[in-house]
Amino acid sequence: MTSRTDEIAAGLEETRERIARAAEKAGRAADEVHLVVVTKFFPASDVRILAGLGVTDVGENRHQEAERKAAECADLGLRWHYIGGLQSNKAAAVAAYADVVESVDRRSLLSRLSRGAGERGQSLDVLLQVSLDPPDREGRAGADPGDVRDLAAEVVATDGLRLRGLMAVAPLGEDPAAAFARLARIREDFLVEHPEATVLSAGMSGDLEQAISHGATHVRVGSAVLGERPTVK
Ligand SMILES: *Cc1c(COP(=O)(O)O)cnc(C)c1O
């Protein structure tokens, strides 16, 4: 029987190879692309195994689960990325443990994130989540591309928040390469005004190659490393 550690080590190695191959194909250095392992639905014991295998960054998308795991794994020195939908009334609490909030998509979150960061006594890295969905898509997450410029300016003007870049998810039912090509153009405009905010978080288990070919600096990979998630929500 293979142990959970062996299983995770194999998924991790395969994912790191995929990243290296995609970077090479895009003419980029493999160390330009950072791996964030998405640990949602998986136990804190898996997070501990990941840290032992050299993973430095983990992603979570549900506040209560993330808060609990971050507390259980506080000794590991990991960077916690919050990548899920954010309710305004939870934003300050998320800023208490997250090192990066990748899913900032509206202005009303900013003062609460700022308050949470202030209470913690450190600044909070922020990515703006850009929607690549059509405007009428049900359950659309992320800011409209046309709102990114104003939202970025608001983040820069907010105490305790550091604008680091953009995040996006490729829409279902569209070729991810086409979606990430749109994202690359949005990012080009964004970088003119915010040249320091170079992070581009894009690409998951199914489309990390396309994301890397369009400039992703961070890929968020869950199932390819950890296996299928339990389907219950
Ligand atoms: C779950 C999730 C991922 C990881 O998805 P996989 O397909 O398991 O790699 C990446 N990004 C976000 C925003 C997610 O919610």
UniProtKB/TrEMBL annotation:
GO MF term set: pyridoxal phosphate binding
Keywords: Pyridoxal phosphate
The keyword Zinc appears for this protein: no
Pfam families: Ala_racemase_N
Gene3D superfamilies the UniProt entry points to: Alanine racemase
Keyword set includes Heme: no
Domain Alanine racemase N-terminal, chain residue ranges per copy: 17-230
InterPro entries with a match to the protein in the record: Ala_racemase_N, PLP-binding_barrel, PyrdxlP_homeostasis
N6-(pyridoxal phosphate)lysine: residues carrying this PTM: 40
CDD domains: PLPDE_III_YBL036c_like (cd00635)
Cofactor requirements of the protein: pyridoxal 5'-phosphate
Coiled coil: none
Record's function text: Pyridoxal 5'-phosphate (PLP)-binding protein, which is involved in PLP homeostasis.
Entry's family note: Belongs to the pyridoxal phosphate-binding protein YggS/PROSC family.
Protein name as annotated: Pyridoxal phosphate homeostasis protein
Source organism of the structure: Nocardioides albertanoniae
